[in-house]
Design a protein that fits this description.
2 copies of one chain form a homodimer. Chain A is α+β, with helices and mostly antiparallel strands. Chain A folds into 2 domains: 20-274, 4-Layer Sandwich (L-amino peptidase D-ALA esterase/amidase), CATH 3.60.70.12; 282-402, Ubiquitin-like (UB roll), CATH 3.10.20. Helix content of chain A is 32%, strand content 25%. The first copy, chain A, is built from 12 helices and 16 strands. Chain A has helices at 60-70, 92-110, 131-135, 138-143, 150-156, 209-222, 255-274, 293-305, 307-314, 320-329, 360-367, 394-402; strands at residues 20-25, 37-42, 47-52, 78-86, 117-124, 165-173, 176-185, 198-203, 227-228, 238-243, 282-290, 340-343, 346-350, 353-354, 371-377, 383-390. In chain A, the strands form 3 sheets. A 7-stranded mixed sheet of chain A has the order 9-16-11-15-12-13-14, sandwiched between helices. The longest helix of chain A has 20 residues, at 255-274. The model of chain A has no long low-confidence stretch (mean pLDDT 91). Chains A and B meet through helix 2, helix 9, helix 10, strand 14 and helix 12 of A and helix 2, helix 8, helix 9, strand 13 and helix 11 of B. Chains A, B: It is found in: Cytoplasm.
Chain lengths: 405, 405
Amino acid sequence: MAVSPLAPAAFPDLPQIGGVRFSSAAAGVRYKGRTDVMLAVIDPGSTVAGVFTRSATRSAPVLDCEAKLAAPASEGGYAFLVNSGNSNAFTGSAGETAVHGLTAATSAATGVPEANILTASTGVIGEPLPWERIRDALDGLNGSLAPDGIAGAARAIMTTDTFPKGASAEVQVGGKAVRIAGMAKGSGMIAPDMATMLVYIFTDAAYDRAALQALLRRLTDRTFNCITVDSDTSTSDSLLMAATGASGVDATGDDAFAEALEGVMLDLAHQVVRDGEGATKFVEIAVTGAEDDADARKVAMAIANSPLVKTAIAGEDPNWGRIVMAVGKSGAKADRDLLSIRLGETLVAEKGWVSPDYREEAGAAYMKQQELVIGVDLGLGQGSAKAWTCDLTHGYIEINADYRS
Amino acid sequence: MAVSPLAPAAFPDLPQIGGVRFSSAAAGVRYKGRTDVMLAVIDPGSTVAGVFTRSATRSAPVLDCEAKLAAPASEGGYAFLVNSGNSNAFTGSAGETAVHGLTAATSAATGVPEANILTASTGVIGEPLPWERIRDALDGLNGSLAPDGIAGAARAIMTTDTFPKGASAEVQVGGKAVRIAGMAKGSGMIAPDMATMLVYIFTDAAYDRAALQALLRRLTDRTFNCITVDSDTSTSDSLLMAATGASGVDATGDDAFAEALEGVMLDLAHQVVRDGEGATKFVEIAVTGAEDDADARKVAMAIANSPLVKTAIAGEDPNWGRIVMAVGKSGAKADRDLLSIRLGETLVAEKGWVSPDYREEAGAAYMKQQELVIGVDLGLGQGSAKAWTCDLTHGYIEINADYRS
């Protein structure tokens, strides 16, 4: 499949994170001739936190991770084991057998206690995971762990993704540098609900475990929970973050660190949208003037999820009437006569109608851009929110009417 | 545009309803060479009730209708005036000027008091309605009113519809026959919220006004509010019903009448789905075993709105994993291990996994049908609901990436 036209020029040069090593392998889970398993091993003394899908039909690995992170922390380091090609979701008791088989085998290979082995699986739903193939790859994975293996790991977790996704930051905490590096996969079934796609983030700062969990939840609401490709929510969405403390710096509660982490999360979230199935346009929806932030988010997501708005964008049609429609259906408080709509800098509609200075040619010219900003001001209060989405094209239909995912 | 493959063989032979006359005309609102305005005049002594979109950006005609129906009933009969080609939505004070201009002109032409003239407009949002063109057609419309004009009227209100939609019933009330006849338009921007597309229903029974309003609301929730084409809700959705009493029979509170009316409404709702933009499959989602009916409806609509389910149907892929996903994201209470899924009569998944007797070939053969039933039993309680939708195809993208609606 061709790489998304919205992809970054290249995978970024990610910093090594002290205390974390990566490897990847081709276990033949579903795909032939490409890597499909990644292993990350994290040194003892690290803290780990995670955020997961709220789907009522969560996958077996998600249920296992949630149980482990809810238990008191245990010693001995962590390992993340992730495969693509099969999500091990809706696979009944066989799904649990596969997870336990893999966590036991990973513990045997790496020496990390089984209570600290966190797995994820992504791909087709409802088919048995051929977990023995992954088990048989574990000794090789353990033997090839390397501090610079993150790029290969990011590639191994791709499914319909057309490019691997990475982002990083370096930030000063108490006068000393700490680093954050993350990777993500995702391009369809993207409307995370209080969670995200598969995302793994690492830092060499130390961070209190409960505080890290709270920080991740808060930042997820402002990053991964504000993107949508197709309004569908995965059974497997998982975000895990490990803070190794290898830098000797404790970043717990540090504002600059939180800001840098939010930047990394937002960058990864945007890359997921840029790899949206069939996407040719990257669209930011910026809502202001709502009664509160929750209403602003409702409006932003209603626009971002509207098939009629997304097909208009695909057709480069400045069809702001469909934006009005989406505002109206959002459930948020809105007053037709106070609403204003902008395409980029151009004021299109205000006071309940098209702006007197607006010219259709200006809107049509703007819509030809690859990166678009739709601005909506509700004129009611101080609430604001942003959401990010892509257009809805023939490519989405082609991918999903044929691909069994 | 080609007629939908899911269209009925022909427009039904609708009974004449005593006390109602129809006409249609080509006023050139937007389209050339086709009718685009319909007038229905209803005799004095009739009662009228209506249900409208809950969009926060409702059109000017919807706001006018709501105000008129909220006021005490007045004497002198009713008129419904409807145009296609322009929705007169988000047109500011010019929208109100257009509505008042049209209701005054319709009153002058027909002799019906202005307080009883109910209008609707459907088509492009945000462009001024050239209402003078409709005004200039009113004398001709009034002069050509006829009891058998309903088929022409149903055709005049079409936009992206590929066929006109009608349905009828005859039912015995107190040993005497009364008749119901209705028409509808709609094929995109279809996810009515406590309302519907443009729908007009007539009966020669008498019916108490407040009771008719309550009946319409209740039946709308079980018919038009259970269909979806694209999850988008129109600014103009309107359902109006007139009970003329010309039969001499009062049907207020009659169960057989309510059942017959529900049948007419469901028939029209299904026809809207059958004319869904780009549709090639008609799909019923039947949910049982939910904790309550509200949860069942959440699950049914989550499946019916899921782009991934709808593209799988377009691809004739028995991809029940995507149905599991949609159940999971619906927000309804669900237990993976109690859930069962059927494609038609075939049990596909149960007890948290694929059914041991299920063969992929059976599912694949079923998906080739044009009419599909997806059954989901949640195994929790007695709640049930049905929803109706169509598949998501290249046709939908073609229509909406190009057509300015």
